[in-house]
Structures are given as structure tokens and as C-alpha cells.
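So, could you explain the following?
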Amino acid sequence: MEFALLELAQHAEGMELDLSEQVAQKVPDDIHKQLSDSLGQADDTFGDRVEDAKQRFDNYLFQEQSALVEAMVRAYARRRPASPAGAI
């Protein structure tokens, strides 16, 4: 199981998001800028907050996928027939 989790960790940065998740993470710059302008407020930290939220969400997804990998490996190990004595 540890091997499977280590292998998953190697590819954490290369995981692709589902199209709906990609769309949800797009930054609506125009809408946010229009709202800030209409309220007479400048929000200089908006981009930083969005990037932080993306990073936290990606970490959450990775933790969820790690838990799923662990569960699948454990389930497979329970269902796998026992090896005969002396077999490698």
C-alpha cells in the first residue's frame, strides 16, 4: 500500500482536472473588476486569494484520491487469494 501511495504522490502535480472543475476554477476577472469598480473599492488581494483557494482545493483532491487508492489496495489485498507456501 505504501508503494501505491508513493507512486500516486509522484504524479500529484500532473493530475488533470475534470472539465467542470476546470471551468469552476476560472477567475472571473471582468465580473469581479466591474463589481469592485461599481462599489468604489479596489481589491488588490483577489488574485492571491483565488490562487490560494485553488491550491487548497488541489490539496484536498489529492488527499481524497490518496484515500481512495489506499482503500482500493486494502480491498484488493483482502480479496486476493493467499499465495501457496513457498511461492514468491
